[in-house]
């Protein structure tokens, strides 16, 4: 009986692992995952006191954990929820969780977006942690 339980457990874990792989972000930049999400959340669309900055301003004067907004394009997927973001003043690595992309919409490298988030300035890495991606016209 112990062999049957072990076989069943191994088969179950293998099946769960396969399901996890099926919903992972694909290699290359193609925008957000099309995997189903648990729930669709509404978002606030009114005015904000979070400053709109350029990449250059953020890199030159930004403080660790400073909230900011950036406008430009996500130009490439680097893996592990990291993307390269670009505006007219420069580029920065941004971290975007799948659920922070607009629900039900694909973001291409040509689409202008606004990123709302927090600057992460460390000794070994500098990046922008995104809380929300907003599509711009």
UniProtKB/TrEMBL annotation:
Q: Quick check: keyword Signal in the entry?
A: yes
- Any one Pfam family here would be BOF
Keywords attached to this entry: Signal
Please list which residues make up the signal peptide. Answer: 1-24
From what superkingdom does this record's organism come? Bacteria
Entry annotated with the keyword Transmembrane: no
- Entry's InterPro entries? BOBF_sf (IPR036700), CarO-like (IPR005220)
User: Entry's Gene3D superfamilies?
Assistant: Bacterial OB-fold
Q: Which NCBIfam families match?
A: stress_OB_fold
The molecule here is called NirD/YgiW/YdeI family stress tolerance protein
Could you tell me which species this protein originates from?
Answer: Alicycliphilus denitrificans
